[in-house]
Known about the structure:
two-stranded antiparallel ribbon, 60% helix
Amino acid sequence: MNGTMTHAPARATPGIPTWFIGTIVASAAGIVVGLLWDISWHMTVGRDTIWTPPHVLEYVSAICAGLACGYVVLRTTFAHADDAASVHFWGFRGPIGAWITIWGTFAMLASAPFDDWWHNAYGLDVKIVSPPHMVLFWGMLGIVVGALALTASAQNRSAERDTVRDAWLYACAGGVVAFIFACGTIEYSWPNEQHSPVFYVVWAGVFPLLLAGYSRAGRLTYPATAAALVCMLLWLAIGQILPHVSAVPRLAPIWNPRTYLWPPYFPVLLVIPAFGMDLVRRRLSGVDPWLLSLALGATFVVLLCAAQWPMATFMVHGNSHNWLFHGHEWPYSTRLGPWEHRFWPTERVSAGVDDPPFVSIVPGLMIATAAGTIASRVGLAWGGWMSRVRR
């Protein structure tokens, strides 16, 4: 992976300073770090108060991103700075990425009292997916997508000497967006799920959209690969930090007492299908978009399965309970048993089920390929729009 460009550099035009965009991307990264930390907190401590450290990190990061983008809008409106690269809304002017980020900030802040009421009314979350969490998720997504749009605009308007720097900013923002979806699909991504078609269908329905978009719009030689690598490294870094934080459960029932924060499993090897998609998109450039999407979707599913099937075997049956892979780490409310060393055929644990043969998931992989094809086609269209964003 290097700094060679796949597009001709755009003519330099005035825009938001790179350090300012970097600050917004860092705020978006703070939000997703807080999200995974919050998941760990729920699995280790439980939901004890709204003012938990991960919640504070999430909301402070959101406020920083919202205020920064608010400043950009006011600066553009009243100082007529970057006026040619702005969109109008309610008499104000600003980059489209700033508007998306501001919307996400309001959604995140609105979710806080909703989430507090939900827990007071219904208690501990049975699942990560709940109505207030969905409002929170969409707010977070708005902020990280807004940061991605800002980096896309900077990349598309940068001078030749700045293109590599701005292209890497775009890849970092893309990695943050991929990260939030990795958190959002974590219920389907346990190692014990990764010999089940559910895992491949869910991931093929989500990540080819992102990776195809990055590959189409990014200006690095391997833009999707770079974004996937950023996502994996961020996930891995958090996994190395959390086990060093002491924590104990505070809500019953406590079936699996813990003494430190639950660390996320070793990240899914997303960089492998991302690299394959970058290669396929470059090799088949100019062909019919649907044929290209079919090739991208099939590449994603085949390479994800080739990489993750043996990795899941190691995680479930191998010596993976160590500082690097964090195998067999379970929430405090989980009653441990033989099921933890087996693969699950569906989303729900089914005790006594052995590892299914590979041939049994072939129909599921075909469905995943169809989902990946549709997601890739949407991603190519989205990437085409991102490659033209200059506002």
